[in-house]
Amino acid sequence: MIQTLIGRDAFRAGMDEYFARHDGEAVTCDDFVAAMATASGFDLQGHFLNWYAQPGTPHLVARDAFDAATGRYTLTLEQKNPKAAELQNGTVHPCLIPVRMALFDARSGAELPDTERLLLLNEARQDFHFENLGQKPLPSLLRDFSAPVLLDYPCTPQALALLLGHERDPFAAWEAGQRLAGDLILTATRGKQTHFQEETLAAFIAALRRLLTEYTTRGAAFVAEAFSLPGESTLAETLAAEGEIDPDALRAARDALRFQIARRLEAEFSALHTDLAPQGDYQFTAEAAGRRALRNTCLGYLLELDAPEYRQLALARFQSADNMTDRFAAFAALVNVRAETCPERDTVLERFHADWRHEALVMDKWLSAQAASRRPGVLAVVEALTRHPAFDPGNPNKIYALIRVFGANLAAFHAADGSGYRFMTGQILALDEKNPQVASRLARSFDRWKAFDPVRKTHAHAALETMRDHPGLSRDVFEVVNRALGE
User: Fold this and answer.
1) Each residue of 27-51: pLDDT tens digit?
2) Which tens digit of pLDDT belongs to each residue from 113-126?
3) Nearest in space to 419 (alpha carbons), one of 378, 384, 388, 453
4) How far is CA 184 from the centre of its chain?
5) Segment holding 138, helix H or strand E
6) What confidence tens digit (pLDDT) does each residue in 355-403 have?
7) Domain count, the chain
8) Is the sign of the CA dihedral 319, 293, 382, 256 positive or negative?
9) Strands (E), 59-116
10) In terms of residue numbers, what domain contains 132?
11) Mean pLDDT throughout 347-352?
12) 54 near 84, Cβ under 8 Å?
């Protein structure tokens, strides 16, 4: 954020000044800010220091209006901080918030010339004006992640799709895609559906298709990242704030969106997977890494269709890979195949273990991929892996790789029958006798139990009470459990 305010050259000069002053010393945030201010001549006192002086993350509320008669577009920015207001008796001191933005044609998606600006918001509310416009534009806010704030700007699905497909700033385009995909998944989840509003879905798919066709100019690494849907845990936070999380409905909706993307872009994924095949030996460059990431993204989506030819393609990729990135991508994609029977999945599970069983960190990834899988019946797989030679119940890294990752698998851990809770309770109590610190970290898996439906809450509450009442329970686990129970 300081770099956004003072520029890259001044920021580099500020770093030199900072090390010249304080190399080898214990310093504070104020010392860092002072060095930047000296090198740049920019006043970083006052409003900027409020970032460090008060709690909470600022909320940036953006609203706009267009006067067709005068051609004036007005963007109103307002900053709020609910946490600071709560803890400081309603007193909130404005921060200096840099908002890098640009305006786009709301029909064509073209960036309007000479509209990129760095707006400095240092009051509770400010208006910014743009003149001589022919129609109401579409703003793209917080380009280059110019400030770590929570943005509140009402944007239609079509506008988000436009930004995803046309905005050349990677962060702003990615953020638009995340919002649009999240809205699609959450709307379906709330209705307990696996289908989507067609107009919105079509706009999303069209933007994604545009990214695939422009990957050479947009950057293969960025395009691969743009195809990553919001995670279940992130989406669950929104549902929790609304009242209740249904992990099965959320998993079904997210999987359904991945399937729709795969089905509608199958031809593009297949062609691009072929086009991105490496020519020659492995290269350790940013460009080559981006091409690998995008090719593996294509493979992952093709496997959503669960067609025999794509399973075979993934197996061939696994067997021929000359680097861990490609091999693990093919492995992880097959691990997520939801069919009960999948010979290719069995093959890569066995082969990966056979090849890397003597590499502890690689085996951690082998365990984690299975614990995090979206396939049904993950609990049975994890239970079997606790008896596998690759798992050591006395090794914290193995426990984290398998048990804690399972605790983060939303649908599997929060199974409606309470089986995930009972399994985790048994693991925590067994471990508590040997390593209460690690056991207490596993117990944090129950932190959000109150955000689920009554049936799941009943099972989770019973599991927590079982741990709380266990004879000889360590203080470490007791504190986590007692806090979760609210006692």
Assistant:
1) 999 999 999 999 999 988 878 889 9
2) 999 999 999 999 99
3) 378
4) 16
5) strand 138-140
6) 999 999 999 999 999 999 999 999 999 999 999 999 999 999 999 999 9
7) 4
8) negative
9) 59-67, 72-80, 97-104
10) 59-154
11) 97
12) yes
pLDDT (average), residues 101-108: 96
> Do 205 and 144 have their domain in common?
no
Instruction: Answer yes or no: is 147 within a domain.
Output: yes
3-state class (DSSP) for residue 110: coil
Could you tell me which of 449, 468, 467 has the C-alpha nearest to residue 459?
449
Which residues are CB-neighbours of 56 under 8 A, at least 6 positions away? 81, 82, 83, 84, 87
Q: d(Cα 102, Cα 167) in Å, to the nearest integer?
A: 9
Question: Which pLDDT score, from 0 to 100, does residue 47 have?
Answer: 82
Are residues 394 and 467 part of one domain? yes
CA distances from 254 to 181, 249, 258 (A): 9, 9, 6
pLDDT of 243 reads 87
Same domain assignment for residues 136 and 180: no
Q: Are residues 112 and 137 in the same domain?
A: yes
Dihedral sign (CA 46, 48, 51, 52): negative
For residue 280, name the pLDDT band (cuts at 50, 70, 90). confident
pLDDT digits (tens, 9 = 90+) for 255-267: 999 999 999 999 9
Q: Is residue 199 part of a domain?
A: yes
Q: Which residues contact 231 (CB under 8 A, 6 or more apart)?
A: none
pLDDT in tens, 422-446: 999 999 999 999 999 999 999 999 9
Indicate the angle between helix axes 198-213 and 247-264, nearest 10 degrees: 50
The answer to whether 351 touches 318, Cβ cutoff 8 Å, is yes
150 and 163 together in one domain: no
Mean pLDDT of 321-347: 95
The four Cα atoms 180, 185, 189, 195 give a dihedral, to 10 degrees, of: 110
DSSP codes joined into one string, 450-484: GGB-HHHHHHHHHHHHHHHTSTT--HHHHHHHHHH
Return d(Cα 385, Cα 380) in angstroms, integer: 9
Q: Answer yes or no: is 349 within a domain.
A: no
Angstrom distance (rounded) from CA 234 to CA 252: 15
The Cα–Cα gap between 106 and 139 comes to 9
Please return the burial class of 340, using the count of CB atoms within 10 Å of its CB with bins 0-12, 13-18 and 19+.
exposed
- Quote the percentage of the chain above a pLDDT of 70: 100
Is the entire prediction scored with pTM above 0.85?
A: yes
Report which secondary-structure segment, H or E, holds 317.
helix 308-320
Give the integer Cα–Cα distance in Å for 101 and 64: 13
Sequence-distant (6+) residues with CB within 8 A of 148 are 1, 57
